[in-house]
Design a protein that fits this description.
Length: 118
């Protein structure tokens, strides 16, 4: 589905990571998920993008957990100003699908279980 990225995480947890928890309006889960899939297809070609995860709760299917990994905060924030992202927001505006606005929380990467290749 294009939700992940191919780039490895920076060594030692360097870079910038963030997490959001989103509760979708009942019956609007597919809109939010489609937006995240389409966003990911555009992020894959953005300088500094490493990877992303979108998890959906089994017990509460309207609840999503999203994580994004970048080389820097500046590169991540610049993506929001790209023509590709702006066009996507006009095509699929996810704000009406959410119970409340997304709350972005910066995260410190503590460990990554993937093997490190030197």
């Amino acid at each position: 589905m294009g939700l992940g990225g191919d780039g490895p995480l920076p060594p030692g947890g360097a870079g910038w990571q963030f997490h959001v928890t989103v509760e979708a309006q009942p019956g609007h889960e597919a809109i939010y998920e489609r937006w995240k899939v389409e966003e990911g297809e555009r992020q894959r070609f953005t300088p500094g993008f490493r990877r992303r995860l979108l998890l959906r709760s089994d017990d509460r299917p309207q609840l999503f957990f999203y994580q994004s990994f970048w080389d820097s905060e500046e590169q991540a924030r610049a993506f929001g100003s790209t023509p590709a992202f702006q066009a996507l927001m006009r095509e699929i505006d996810p704000n009406g699908a959410m119970v409340r606005p997304q709350l972005l929380e910066e995260c410190d990467l503590r460990f990554d279980a993937q093997p490190v290749i030197a």
